[in-house]
TrEMBL record:
It holds the Pfam family Cu-oxidase_3. This is Plastocyanin-like domain-containing protein. GO terms for molecular function: copper ion binding; oxidoreductase activity. Keywords: Glycoprotein.
Length: 545
């Protein structure tokens, strides 16, 4: 019989590290089967054809954890082509699954297609929504909750319960009529109201147990309206935004712009004394103020809240909003999806390889009003760029540097893997702009009034700026971001304001390795970028290839 040998300290350490790696890399295969169809609903008392998922509006919450592989089989029972995109999910090296018009052919009516993607190194609160034909104006959206792996501690006590809180403006008009108006140069009207979880005033209800702490995962899923969110007599501890943990601070209210997501902790009162409380999402920077109203219910609540709604900031108080945005800071000590602290990534020390100045505007092109980036309104081709690249089909594209005259073109920014971009969004208009970049988070290093110039760099936050995927730009102002292009693929940069994006305010960033610019697309290693899916839908010039 061989004697038992005890492990040395170095061997024990090595085994422990190996076990931790196995636990960290652990993941599950998740399968969802979603039917997308119409249903007649009246969230604000006016009957309307709404897009539902498995009969639900909003759609089901997509629950997952870091590194899980998600498979979502979507059955399209609409009368029009359909795509779903996953706002804030980075689709690491896999823009084939991004669900926007230049990466995917649509799912035709009566057909189905399965998205398959890994939630690589991500945690946080996000949402999904339909990306084609202004379908978002009819609903079709839902929440995404990405939890930490058990081995990664969260930087706050475990909440008693999570609630998805989807807030957004709502238009009683049919989405087809809104779309036709946009195509005729008539912009969206003022919204008819604000919904909370797809429901009208006093219909969304959240049950609180005394002294329990709840995580509210809040997303602005609307079309164009910035919203202020608050809960009567309940301060909110802000802890996370779009996959990044923040220095924890209490807020009485939060401005949440179109496409943005936040997670807050709310601790219930020890005794509610029979009261219930208002939850409010009110419009910001609009001529008329609209409010979505929810209800916080305690076990002994005698009924709905009474009295006035809790006050928010002044309707046009931009200074409140920009100062609140500047107050948010990245938590350098907390670990998010990976064991190492967030602050171990020193973005402020990385040399900038390229600066882009992107100015949004609205211009007349031909006889129609269109939204532009640097004078160019995006024009979709008959075949997604991703397929054109893969099959080496010729397609003329233009980088939106600064068009001499307003024009329509397929705007593409070509970049090398690991480039480090400095992007300045300049907004010369009188409305808040909201920008999103698929495939990435970026660092919001500065924002201010007026025109940006080189001197503004001196005021950048190069230590603990918030890392996120959607950022606001206030009227007559600028916002600057830093972003490492460490995710190969073709990625959509778009206005989150639905009418702007629908009428051309977007472009694509095409990121390849140095050698991939010379190689055939089909020769790209799977280690660099995911291969074309076996179930890929082909259309346009690639239909028969």
């Amino acid at each position: 019989m061989n004697p038992i040998r005890l492990l040395t300290s170095s061997e024990l350490c090595l085994c422990t590290c190996f076990l931790l790696v196995l636990i960290y890399r652990g993941w599950s295969q998740l399968f969802y089967d979603w039917t997308v169809s119409y249903s007649q609903l009246a969230p604000l008392g006016v009957d309307k054809q709404v897009i539902v998922i498995n009969g639900m509006f909003p759609g089901p919450v997509l629950y997952a954890s870091t590194n899980d592989v998600v498979n979502v089989n979507i059955h399209n029972y609409l009368t029009e082509p359909f795509l779903m995109t996953w706002n804030g999910v980075q689709m690491r090296k896999n823009s084939w699954q991004d669900g926007v018009q230049e990466t995917n052919c649509p799912i035709l009516p009566g057909q189905n297609w399965t998205y398959s993607f890994q939630l690589k190194d991500q945690i946080g609160s996000f949402f999904y929504f339909p990306s084609l034909l202004l379908h978002k104006a009819a609903g079709g959206y839902g929440a995404i909750h990405l939890n930490n792996l058990p081995i990664i501690p969260i930087p706050f006590p475990q909440p008693y319960k999570d609630y998805a809180v989807l807030i957004g403006d709502w238009f009683n008009a049919d989405y087809r009529d809104l779309r036709a108006s946009l195509e005729n140069g008539v912009f969206l009207p003022h919204p008819d109201g604000i919904l909370i979880n797809g429901l009208g005033p006093n219909q969304a209800r959240f049950e609180f147990e005394p002294s329990a702490t709840y995580m509210l995962r809040i997303s602005n899923v609307g079309l164009k309206t910035s919203l202020n969110f608050r809960i009567e007599d309940h301060p909110m501890l802000l802890v996370e935004t779009e996959g990044s943990y923040l220095i924890q601070q209490y807020y009485d209210s939060l401005d949440i712009h179109v496409g943005q997501s936040y997670s807050v902790l709310v601790t219930a009162k020890n005794q509610a004394n029979g009261k219930s409380y208002y939850m409010v999402a009110s419009s910001r920077f609009t001529i008329l103020e609209h409010s979505g109203i929810g209800v916080i219910l305690y076990p002994d609540a005698a009924g709905d809240p009474v009295g006035p709604l809790p006050l928010g900031p002044g309707l046009s108080n931009y200074n409140f909003s920009i100062e609140q945005a500047r107050s948010m800071r990245w938590d350098l000590i907390a670990s998010a999806a990976r064991p190492n602290p967030q602050g171990s990534y020193h973005y402020g020390t990385i040399p900038i390889t390229r600066t882009l100045i992107l100015e949004n505007n609205v211009m007349v092109i031909g006889s129609k009003r269109r939204f532009t980036i640097n004078g160019i309104s995006f024009m979709h081709s008959d075949t997604p760029l991703k397929l054109l690249d893969y099959f080496q089909l010729n397609e003329e594209s233009k980088y939106a540097a600064a068009a001499a005259l307003p024009s329509s073109a397929t705007s593409v920014v070509d970049a090398f893997y690991r480039d480090f971009f400095h992007i300045v969004f300049q907004n010369p208009l009188l409305e808040v702009q909201s920008w999103h970049i698929d495939g990435y988070n970026f660092f919001v290093v500065g924002m201010g009034w007026g025109l940006w110039d080189e001197s503004k760099k001196a005021g950048y936050n190069i230590v603990d700026a918030v890392s996120r995927s959607t950022v606001q730009v206030y009227p007559l102002s600028w916002t600057a971001i830093l972003m490492e292009l460490d995710n190969l693929g073709t990625w959509n940069l778009r206005s989150q304001n639905a009418e702007n994006g629908y009428l051309g305010q977007e472009l694509y960033i095409r990121v390849k390795g140095v050698r991939n610019w010379l190689d055939e697309q089909s020769d790209i290693s799977a280690r660099d970028e995911a291969p074309i899916p076996d179930n890929v839908i082909k259309c346009g010039r690639a239909a028969d290839l």
